[in-house]
From TrEMBL:
Record-given protein name: High-affinity zinc uptake system membrane protein ZnuB
Keyword flag Repeat: no
Superkingdom, taxonomy of origin: Bacteria
Extent of the signal sequence: none
InterPro entries named in the record: ABC_BtuC-like (IPR037294), ABC_TroCD (IPR001626)
Transmembrane segments: 6-28, 40-73, 85-106, 127-146, 166-198, 210-231, 237-257
Source organism per UniProt: Candidatus Thioglobus autotrophicus
Topological relation to the membrane, as annotated: Multi-pass membrane protein
Keywords: Cell membrane, Ion transport, Membrane, Transmembrane, Transmembrane helix, Transport, Zinc, Zinc transport
Gene3D superfamilies attached to this UniProt entry: ABC transporter involved in vitamin B12 uptake, BtuC
GO biological process assignments: response to zinc ion; transmembrane transport; zinc ion transport
One term under GO cellular component: ATP-binding cassette (ABC) transporter complex
Length: 262
């Protein structure tokens, strides 16, 4: 097996575990549009990271964290409706990212890779970074599982029991920002949300408990990644879109299965 394929496989499987588990909370909390907005801000993070010399990953995390914090603050202030706030910041961040990249990027800047992923660019350092984030996210989910689940399924009860809603919202959004920061090279800025929402949407058909849905979502994500990487390697296709198509196929099959049982 070629080294770049092996690196891509290891990286994608790590991302599958993170996205599959966090995606369940995105579905439960109906935050698909929020994750889409965070993914759009990723392009601004990439451009600022390259412009400052701090690197792409640092820029992604800093911008994603600031972006998530601003959204939480504005939502609590009742400044505008949630979808309006997300829409404004999402498209503003995406546009700023394109403008800054056009200024600081050279002729060799691969915009297609940033938007849709580039499996050939995965390095050993990127893999290390992915699995560090994996450890952080899994550790936080294990430590705060009950509280995050209670806030997700019954927010009023959680608040009445003294849980700090703002803290856990920021914690969850930070985990989403970390996930976005490590997913750019696999599926790109425009397709990250699909990794977060499609696997749990498939797992929801079969799962009988929240924990089972998380594990099944991870399995679905891994299967789609393996299918997408295999197809993109054999047929020389773009990796990110191919993975998303594989996710779409699994989603359609799950719906057909549901109708057949119904």
């Amino acid at each position: 097996m070629e080294d770049f394929i092996l690196r891509a496989l290891i990286a994608a499987l790590g991302i599958s575990i993170i996205a599959g588990s966090l995606g369940c909370f995105v579905i439960w909390k109906r935050m698909s549009y929020f994750s889409e907005s965070i993914s759009h801000s990723a392009l601004l993070g990439v451009s600022l990271g390259l412009a400052s010399g701090l690197g792409m990953h640092v820029g992604l995390i800093v911008v994603g964290t600031i972006f998530a914090g601003l959204i939480v603050i504005l939502q609590q202030k009742n400044f505008l409706s949630n979808d309006a706030i997300l829409g404004i910041f999402s498209h503003l961040a995406l546009s700023l990212g394109i403008v800054i990249l056009s200024i600081v990027g050279g002729e060799n800047t691969d915009y297609f890779a940033l938007l849709f992923g580039d499996v050939l660019s995965i390095s050993t350092q990127d893999i290390i970074w992915i699995y560090v984030v994996l450890g952080i996210v899994v550790g936080l989910l294990v430590a705060f599982w009950q509280k995050l689940l209670l806030l997700t399924l019954n927010e009023e009860l959680a608040v009445s029991q003294g849980l700090n809603r703002t803290f856990y919202q920021l914690l969850f959004m930070l985990m989403i920002a970390l996930t976005v920061s490590i997913s750019v090279q696999i599926v790109g800025v425009l397709l990250i949300t699909s990794l977060l929402i499609i696997p749990p949407a498939v797992a929801r058909v079969f799962a009988r408990s929240p924990l089972a849905m998380v594990f099944q979502s991870i399995v679905v994500s891994m299967v789609a990644v393996l299918m997408g990487l295999s197809a993109s390697t054999f047929y020389d296709l773009a990796t990110g879109p191919t993975i998303v198509i594989a996710l779409g196929v699994l989603f359609i099959l799950s719906q057909l299965f549901t109708r057949r049982l119904g």
